[in-house]
Amino acid sequence: MRFQAVLLVAIASLTACSATDNSDPGIAFAAGTYVLTSVNGQALPFTEQSGTPLVKLTGGQFVARKDGTFTQTSLRTTTTSGTGTTPSSKDRNGTYSVGGQVISFLFLDNAESGLGSHTPTTLSLALGQVTYEYTRQ
Questions:
Q1: Residues 6 or more apart from 22 whose CB is under 8 A from it?
Q2: Which pick of 56, 85, 102, 129 has the fewest CB atoms within 10 Å?
């Protein structure tokens, strides 16, 4: 419970920063295009749902812009008996703010938030029990 309180304070303090402040060196440093390389430490494809239908995350991209906005694109396949495998893609948009190496993400479609980190070549995003790892292109 104490961890959750600390996490909420961290999110609140990071989101208090202006996501559209182009002079923020953290945002400028994190801005770029990243390719999804693993989920929860497992290489792709990552099974999101086993059984019928079988849903696998097969790829994705994360674009962090210098204005503090982002687009996360996820590529999936859904396999059902009788109809075969169907590919799909989904884009989610939001805003991000940076404090040191910690990034706070807020998705606009459902107000879901997450925390992550970045280095010069990687970006990580944790949403609930799932952690997405990206490599800068």
A1: 28, 66, 67
A2: 129
- DSSP state letters, 24-69: -HHHHHH-EEEEEEEETTEESSEEEE-SSSEEEEEEEEEEE-TTSE
**N-term to C-term CA, the chain:** 38
CA distance 20 to 55: 36
Q: How many CA atoms, within 13 angstroms, populate the side-chain half-sphere of residue 31?
A: 15
**Chain-centroid distance, C-alpha 102:** 13
Give pLDDT tens digits for 65-86. Answer: 999 999 999 999 999 988 899 9
Residue 132 host element (H or E): strand 130-136
Q: How far apart are CA 99 and CA 64, in angstroms?
A: 15
